[in-house]
Amino acid sequence: MASTERRQIQSAYATLPIVFEENKGQANQAVRYIARANRYTLFLTSSDLVFSLRPASGAGDPNPVGQGPLATPPQVHAHRSPRNASSNAIHMQLIDGNLSHVAASGELSGKSNYFIGNDPRKWLRNVPLYARASYRNVYRGVDLAFHGKRGRLEFDFLVAPGANPRPIGFHFSGTNNLKLDRAGDLVISSPSGSFLLHPPFAYQEQNGSRQEVTARFALEAARRVTVELGPYDHTRELVIDPSVSYAYSTYLGGSLEDDGFGIAVDSSGNAYITGQTDSTNFPTSGGVPPNSNAGGFDVFVTKISPSGSSVVYSTYVGGAGNDSGNAIAVDSSGDAFVTGGTSSNNFPTTHGAFQTTYGTTAASNAFIFELSPAGDALTYSTYLGGTVNDVAYGIALDSSGNAYSVGVTSSADFPTLSPLQTCAGDYSGFLSKLNSAGTALVYSTCLSLGGSIGDAINAVAVDSSGNAYITGATSSSSFHTTSGAVQTQFGGVSDAFVTVINAAGNNYIYSTFLGGSGSDVGNGIAVDSLFNVYVTGSTGSSNFPVKSAYQSAFAGGNADAFVTKINPTGSALVYSTYLGGGQFDAGAGIAVDSGGNAYITGQTDSLAPAPFPTTANATQSALAGGFDAFVSELNPAGAQLLFSTYLGGSEDEDSSGGKYGAIAVDNSGANIYVTGDTASVDFPTQSPLYPGNNGGASDAFVTKYSQPSFALSTTTFAAVSPGSSATSTVTLTSLNGYDSPVKLTCTVSGTGSPLPSCSANSFSANPVTPTSAGAPTTLTITTTGLSGNTRQQRGGVSYALWLPLTGLPLIVGLVFSSSGSCPKGWFGFLALCLASGLLLIPACGGGSAGTSGSGSCNGAPSAPTGLAASGTTTTGTTLNWNAAAVGANCSVTGYTVYQNGKSIGTPSNTTFNVASLTAGTQYSFTVAASDSAGTSPQSTALSVTTLSSATPAGIYTVAITAVGTDANQRTESSVLTLTVN
């Protein structure tokens, strides 16, 4: 199999949902269920929970430092404040807990098969798979439920009303180390790597919404971990959810300096990172031959699989001088487009490219190249520059594959085509549109900003019409603005700006200043499908323009980040807000999802008492030391932070070359991708490809955050009696603009049979498309009451009596009903028979006593009549019937009862109790009578159906699973309890 095919298969396998596989002999007999996740397998046994870890790879040895001169835009910055193996098993036991009762629920349509070895007798077929596995009563009134969620393994403690959660605790063995990190995560380390238990998220349901309960881990002696809870309502169920997370965060670098400057993501969730490295041992895979450092700093391009478990490719690109990849974009085919700066006169260019030679006397040129989906070839590669100094900082693509590169130039002969403005030769910003083949410019223009401090275009975005949106910084009051724009007057020192140029490059759509009286810089820009533009950067202005702001005032220090949203015509702010604490904060990159949520990264050294603003769901709530990165999400109105966190270790993050990091997000906003650089040896990692800092000034880092795309909430069930139904309103709320239908299933577990009934058809609407206001559907759970019926099969039985009359042969063949009485018209019939010389006397109902008189009994009884049932239960019934009629000198000696044609008893009277029946089953009964002359025919058959069992009283667990129909099949789940009285 080719390596690319293998990587594709591995990538697809890594995105499969987590399932629970019943052990049918494929594992040790102590194992009950198996769950396989990325980099580990979980074995559920009756004594402990076993995590079998697979080792991650590493690289490099520490060595000294280098520098990268081509990453830093010569722009106006607000000044920063100074500041001096094999698999390994980890066993998790519950302290004083009981794991003996485990069962799976939610059986899935798929199966597992094991065809191992050449003995077919040892092969396993159709091994069942389940969505959940649960331990019952691990502590009194406490259940433990495992399930998969967005590709992660999660487990919940379900604390019943009135139950005591205080005994909950873990003990770990097979670990090297156990510690709590700054975010409250429990870090469990082993020779094969580490995994995290996130701080427990505890909550209770109230009126369809979750009420959070304070919860945290406490680390005790002897590797014991307990859960500490805040106040909560003990009359309602409590859910404690400490999730096992393998959303990834990794170092990426060699033994010298490595910096991540740009990141992009494709529709499959592969992350593409570019930056600069002067390490000769930067981790590589595949790549452009010879894929080795060519001298000084080189560009690197690394593609990481969606799960973060493997590198798809990783390559150097560069020449003998210094080269820096400053921005990256990816098209629908997986081609990566990189732009940056190079001082190499032998930078690899391709035949027929727009500019194949380095500018004579130039200190640097910009470049643009396109890398094949496998990362093993340059589709095209070109210089872009004149004879002085040119560096590119941003890139974007349109739907035709044209590349838009922006940056700064000091070259008066920078290549232009149909320019809006000529190049002044003193740090002018440039915007160049290169055709899809990389062979020619579509247009290229400078914005001759004319400032003396150094002005630049730092970022570009492109809308669906091919219009280019650019931002940066200008110190010129004569910067071109358009009538009716948001801000046509220069604010002072330097302003950010937003300029939109049409697809042909021959006119402005709008152009505006954005700033106050201090220093303001635009560093990142994005545009949504409605042509709203989003900008971030840094501001030192206490009068920066704000509107509908999350943070309306400057927080102090040297600078705050800002986030601004401008309407499609550029005539008004939708919102504009500060984002920062009391020290230095700068926004570096911005991305937007389909719902209009804005995602920002940058750098901060703000700490208490005026920290950078974070949210309750932050993965790191405090500054770790030096400068940290930050990652924040603003809602579409700009008035609420949906997510905000620090990201860093005890040293500096995003400090190399003045670049403050880059960010990307998938369309639904479910996954956030961040890159930058770190000098910390304790940068927070999760499932790292490269778990340690390899030395030098810095390593790049790549971090992926996963967050839900829709929320699932439920109302509680009222207690019911057997035979009644219970309902819950299930509400699906869209997050981050999620709009794919969601399929719902539910399962019920508990003791007793039959269980309450619940399935995909139990929802009033299914699937359901979440909405921002919440889309409801009604779940109806049906319990079973006692039920059953008795019916008698109607049909005739032939029976006759021979009555000898002299000279007449009597042949009997009359058929009567089973009522036991003589038919009407009998005497008329008898008269007719006598007239014809034939007498037929049918046996009529009567008592069992024989006719008085002497002589022997010479005829069998008639068949019993009136067979009926009474007192039918789930396991038995009582039969009774009329006594059989007998002939002269005869009496009934006994009866025989038949069940489904087989004799089950011989009572002497006309009543018989039938036992040991099965609930909800139909049976056929008949009875025959005997006297000394013989046995009668069997009676008319009676059909009896035993009562169905009722749902036993008890507490039942109802598990609801919601699976999105999007490509990632995002999953949310909820667990309710149902009380049957």
Structure description:
The protein has 981 residues and is mostly beta strands. It is 2% helix and 43% strand. It contains 2 helices and 64 strands. The chain has a 15-stranded antiparallel beta sheet that branches. Strands 52, 57, 58, 60, 61 and 62 form a 6-stranded antiparallel beta sheet that branches. It has a 4-stranded antiparallel beta sheet with strand order 11-12-13-19, with no helix packed on it. The chain is elongated, with a radius of gyration of 40 Å.
Would you tell me the structural class of the helices and strands?
A: mainly beta
- Assembly of the depicted chains: single chain
Mean pLDDT: 83
Specify Rg, calculated over alpha carbons.
40 Å
Q: Which stretches are poorly predicted, pLDDT < 50 over at least 5 residues?
A: 1-15, 55-69, 74-87, 792-853
N- and C-termini, Cα separation = 60 Å
Treating each run of at least 4 consecutive H or I residues as one helix, how many helices?
A: 2
Tertiary shape = elongated
Q: Please report the total strand number as a whole number.
A: 64
Strand coverage percent: 35-45%
How does the major sheet shape up?
A: 15 strands, antiparallel
* Helix percentage range: under 10%
Gist of the model:
This protein has 981 residues and is mainly β.
Task: For this entry, give a set of tags.
mainly beta, six-stranded antiparallel beta sheet, disordered N terminus, 64 strands
Please render the helix and strand layout as text.
Layout: H1 3-14, E1 20-22, E2 31-37, E3 40-45, E4 49-53, E5 88-94, E6 102-114, E7 124-139, E8 142-149, E9 152-159, E10 169-173, E11 177-180, E12 186-190, E13 193-197, E14 201-206, E15 209-213, E16 215-220, E17 224-229, E18 238-241, E19 244-245, E20 249-252, E21 258-265, E22 271-277, E23 298-304, E24 311-317, E25 323-330, E26 336-342, E27 365-371, E28 378-384, E29 390-397, E30 403-409, E31 428-434, E32 441-447, E33 456-462, E34 468-474, E35 495-501, E36 508-514, E37 520-527, E38 533-539, E39 560-566, E40 573-579, E41 585-592, E42 598-604, E43 628-634, E44 641-647, E45 662-665, E46 671-678, E47 699-706, E48 710-714, E49 725-734, E50 742-749, E51 775-782, E52 787-792, E53 797-798, E54 815-816, H2 826-835, E55 865-870, E56 877-882, E57 894-899, E58 902-905, E59 911-914, E60 922-931, E61 934-935, E62 942-948, E63 954-964, E64 971-980
Antiparallel strand pairs: 1-2, 1-7, 2-3, 3-4, 4-5, 5-10, 6-7, 7-8, 8-9, 9-18, 10-17, 11-12, 12-13, 13-19, 14-15, 14-18, 16-17, 20-47, 21-22, 22-23, 23-24, 25-26, 26-27, 27-28, 29-30, 30-31, 31-32, 33-34, 34-35, 35-36, 37-38, 38-39, 39-40, 41-42, 42-43, 43-44, 45-46, 46-47, 48-49, 49-51, ...
